[in-house]
Amino acid sequence: MADGFDLDHHGDLEVGGGLVDLAVNVRVGTPPGWLVEEIAGSLSDLASYPRQEAALAAVAARHGVTPDRVLLTAGAAEAFVLVARAFRPRHAVVVHPQFTEPEAALRSAGHVVDRVILRAEDGFVLDPRAVPADADLVVIGNPTNPTSVLHRADDLRELARPGRVLVVDEAFMDAVPGEPESLAGASIPGLVVIRSLTKTWGLAGLRVGYVLAAPGLVEQLAAVQPHWPVSTPALAAAIACSNEHALVEAAQAAAVLDRDRAYLLDALGDSVSTYGVPRGPFVLVQVQGADVLRNALRERGYAVRRGDTFPGLGADWLRIAVRPEDVTDAFVKVWRDLRGHRRSTEWPL
Fold first, then answer.
1. 11-28+246-338 is classed in which CATH architecture?
2. What are the extents of the domains in the chain?
3. Whole-Å CA distances, 19 to 22, 284, 305, 334
4. Using one digit for the tens of pLDDT, what is the confidence trace for 122-131?
5. DSSP-derived secondary structure for 193-258
6. pTM for this structure?
């Protein structure tokens, strides 16, 4: 716990027991068969130590950078730990509401962390002026988990300055059609972009992600990374998910996601309050009695993500993963049944 927030709580703790999963933001129907085949094809090389050259080249080509600007990691989570170990900030700032892993990693490494809290009334939109000028390490998600807000690249560029490391978590950026506000591959002093293959490709169990940064920053992060951090199957996945076929599929999936998210929001209608413009594979909603509603949904077979573990949010927030229309129809029917059926003192609606 940190200031009353359980930074180690993640959506995977909400699922299981046959529940329909609207708590974890991994695309349904993944990993696709062709990707499983690519990963399985690497298993014959398990007797050898992993060689990263081909994967580094593939990821670099995908983002139009040189391989020395890429660091492969065991998922985005390892990248956050490397940031916490490699740098010694005097004033670390995390912009919230935000994925809690970066702050947890910084605190675990002994850093004192300051928080900038974006307000629902402002649509959870970043105002660069809210970040203290003396902050020498700043972390922000784009699009941000759990708010689903996509910040303007120009606003993020305003955060960059001499002597500051700017960490932008783009774990969900490939779920945004065209990736319009991405800074991946940008030449901005101090910029560290973190990417994950978990969400779009369904590889949470494989642990594979990467960092894009200037060569000097990559060297600093690599210096605190163990040898052979990324397995041979994970390297095969990095190569496969960077090719043209994969990029086309990801773009198509992002377009479907846009439609499915609009369908979910329309189905929920005025039963919830939303703030900002959601662009990720999830929506953040405010609803009175959310904690009781979440447990009632579990009893009816549905898992959604609690919001009160995110700094800046409280017990009346829920994060709901975007799913295909048929799943949304069934979920919203249960949601509306519960909302209309249980209006008593035990459920403060």
1. Alpha-Beta Complex (3.90)
2. 11-28+246-338, 33-242
3. 9, 20, 12, 13
4. 999 999 999 9
5. EEEESHHHHT-TTT--EEEEE-HHHHHHHHTTSPSS-S-HHHHHHHHHTTSHHHHHHHHHHHHHHH
6. 0.96
CA atoms within 13 A on the CB side of 171: 34
77: enclosing H helix or E strand: helix 75-86
> Do 167 and 142 meet the contact criterion of CB atoms below 8 Å apart?
no
Q: Return the amino acid letter for 5.
A: F
- pLDDT for 13-44, tens place per residue? 999 999 999 999 999 999 999 999 999 999 99
CA distances 134 to 62, 131, 140, 190, 300, Å, are 34, 9, 16, 14, 49
Q: Rounded CA gap, 141 and 259, in Å?
A: 23
How many helices, marked H, and strands, marked E, lie in the chain? 11, 11
Write down the CATH number for the domain with range 33-242.
Answer: 3.40.640.10
State both tokens at 87. Answer: 């740098």
Q: From 274, 269, 295, select the one nearest 347 (Cα to Cα).
A: 295
